[in-house]
């Protein structure tokens, strides 16, 4: 079973999505050609997104490293990026069986009306495996603690996907879709709390600047494309590159900002027919039961507000990481994941650029401390994975550093579970169990009530 799921993961989303969506489409009564076309659109979307992300990391890694050397930005926690976190996640006994275990949990919750989300975002299951792997090593290679942490994270994320589904669908006009990705859902907590606070600050609550308003106010300078060029040029200038390289970095960053929304439109073209048909079948055969297809937040990272906030925060968080006291983590390799901060923030800020920026900045600053505190556990897990499998080069931490990654290690869910396991032990297990059960019961009551009212 381990080998089967490892084979599936190795195929990648771009290959498996056409297969998975074709099977789902046929099961819900779609014609073969339409189901295959939907899957191919999503698969091609992942191909395009991987190319654009690689374009960003390949061209900006050297300038950012150069800036660290020029300005002596030496912090002890080395940014390993999401590939290292995923390698740690799947390189342990917990990660090996995380997909079948979580799918089983998902089915049980679905049939007992504890969730409406069917999480088919298999390639992001590494988030659950990661927190399980960290707990596994922190608790002296305990399977009990490893699977406990992973399953708690999975259940909490499914409930959050349900609770945020209506708002997400309304904001992005994507009926039948929810986001069961824990890194992304973690920022919902910040979005709700900080948005509530900002609405009560006189003057700030009247600032309603969305991406379109930004274009009207600043003209061409408010375009994500032009903002990308400006930030790329500034990074090249700060790294003391020659004019040719500076201009190239500017156009490259601008290109990324322009290409992402065009690529993510492919996800929507592929997902809409499947989602609509799923809702139609559920309504006919299951007495009006709503079902959400759990997908990667990649399908909405092309939103203009997400692009504007991401490109602004990239240089800002670099400067802040060096200045804030107590932080030992400088995000470099993880910066390509900045776009994934905002998919669940925007539905609460209604796309307001100023609010989204403030929430994103606070979440990132708090996330720096999460990564710093979790670095010792990340390092322990990564070293064990690399020792057991020397071919897992992504998990090798440079000599003299501890390892960390903004991706998931900086998330609220991941850190709370980690802190409860490491610092509170059995008390922490009890607290997490009670919180998880309370969320599941509350979600089930809500689902049953809504189904009763819809009849």
Secondary structure layout plus pairing:
Layout: H1 2-11, H2 13-27, H3 32-70, E1 77-79, H4 81-90, H5 93-96, H6 98-111, E2 117-119, H7 126-138, H8 143-172, E3 177-178, H9 182-198, H10 211-218, H11 224-238, H12 243-285, E4 292-294, H13 304-323, H14 346-349, H15 353-388, E5 402-404, H16 412-454
Helix pairs in contact: 2-3, 3-12, 4-7, 4-15, 6-8, 7-8, 7-15, 7-16, 8-9, 8-16, 9-15, 11-12, 11-13, 13-15
Can you give keywords for this protein?
455 residues; mainly alpha; 3-stranded parallel sheet; 5 strands; globular
How would you describe the overall organization of this protein?
The chain has 455 residues and is mainly alpha-helical. The chain is 71% helix and 3% strand. It has helices at 2-11, 13-27, 32-70, 81-90, 93-96, 98-111, 126-138, 143-172, 182-198, 211-218, 224-238, 243-285, 304-323, 346-349, 353-388, 412-454; strands spanning 77-79, 117-119, 177-178, 292-294, 402-404. Strands 2-4-3 form a three-stranded parallel sheet. It is globular, with a radius of gyration of 22 Å.
Total strands: 5
Strand order of the largest sheet: 2-4-3
**What's the end-to-end separation, in Å?**
42 Å
Averaging pLDDT over every residue, what do you get? 86
The total of helices stands at 16
The level of helicity is over 70%
- Please state the structural category: mainly alpha
**Largest sheet entry:** 3 strands, parallel
Strand content: under 5%
In N-to-C order, the SSE pattern is HHHEHHHEHHEHHHHEHHHEH
Q: Which shape, going by the Cα principal axes?
A: globular
What is the C-alpha radius of gyration, as a whole number of Å?
22 Å
Low-confidence stretches: none
């Amino acid at each position: 079973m381990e080998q089967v799921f490892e084979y599936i993961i190795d195929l990648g989303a771009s290959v498996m999505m056409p297969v998975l969506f074709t099977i789902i489409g046929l099961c819900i009564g779609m014609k073969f050609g339409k189901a295959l076309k939907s899957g191919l659109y999503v698969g091609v979307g992942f191909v395009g997104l991987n190319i654009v992300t690689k374009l960003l990391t390949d061209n900006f890694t050297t300038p950012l490293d150069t800036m660290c050397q020029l300005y002596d930005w030496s912090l002890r926690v080395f940014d390993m990026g999401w590939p290292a976190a995923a390698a740690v996640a799947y390189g342990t006994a917990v990660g090996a069986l995380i997909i079948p275990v979580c799918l089983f949990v998902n089915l049980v919750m679905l049939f007992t009306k504890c969730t409406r989300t069917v999480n088919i975002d298999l390639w992001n299951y590494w988030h659950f495996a990661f927190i399980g792997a960290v707990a596994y090593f922190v608790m002296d290679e305990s399977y009990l603690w490893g699977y406990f942490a992973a399953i708690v994270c999975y259940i909490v994320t499914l409930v959050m996907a349900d609770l945020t589904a209506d708002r997400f669908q309304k904001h992005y006009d994507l009926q039948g879709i929810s986001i069961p990705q824990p890194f992304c859902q973690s920022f919902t907590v910040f979005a709700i709390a900080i948005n509530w606070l900002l609405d009560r600050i006189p003057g700030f609550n009247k600032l309603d600047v969305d991406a379109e308003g930004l274009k009207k106010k600043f003209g061409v300078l408010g375009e994500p494309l032009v903002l990308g060029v400006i930030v790329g040029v500034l990074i090249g200038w700060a790294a003391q590159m020659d004019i040719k390289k500076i201009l190239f970095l500017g156009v490259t960053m601008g290109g990324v900002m322009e290409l992402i929304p065009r690529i993510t439109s492919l996800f929507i073209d592929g997902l809409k027919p499947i989602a609509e048909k799923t809702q139609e079948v559920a309504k006919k055969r299951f007495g009006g039961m709503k079902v959400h297809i759990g997908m990667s937040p990649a399908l909405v990272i092309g939103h203009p507000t997400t692009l504007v906030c991401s490109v602004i925060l990239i240089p800002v968080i670099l400067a802040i990481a060096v200045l804030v006291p107590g932080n030992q983590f400088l995000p470099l390799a993880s910066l390509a994941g900045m776009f994934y901060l905002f998919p669940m923030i925007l539905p609460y800020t209604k796309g307001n650029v100023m609010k989204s920026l403030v929430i994103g900045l606070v979440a990132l600053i708090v996330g720096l401390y999460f990564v710093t505190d979790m670095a010792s556990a990340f390092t322990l897990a990564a070293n064990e994975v690399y020792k057991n499998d020397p071919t897992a080069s992504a998990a090798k931490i440079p000599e003299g550093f501890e390892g960390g990654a903004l991706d998931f290690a900086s998330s609220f869910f991941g850190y709370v579970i980690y802190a409860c396991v490491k610092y509170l032990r059995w008390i922490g297990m009890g607290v997490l169990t009670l919180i998880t059960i309370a969320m599941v019961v509350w979600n089930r009551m809500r689902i049953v009530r809504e189904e009763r009212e819809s009849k």
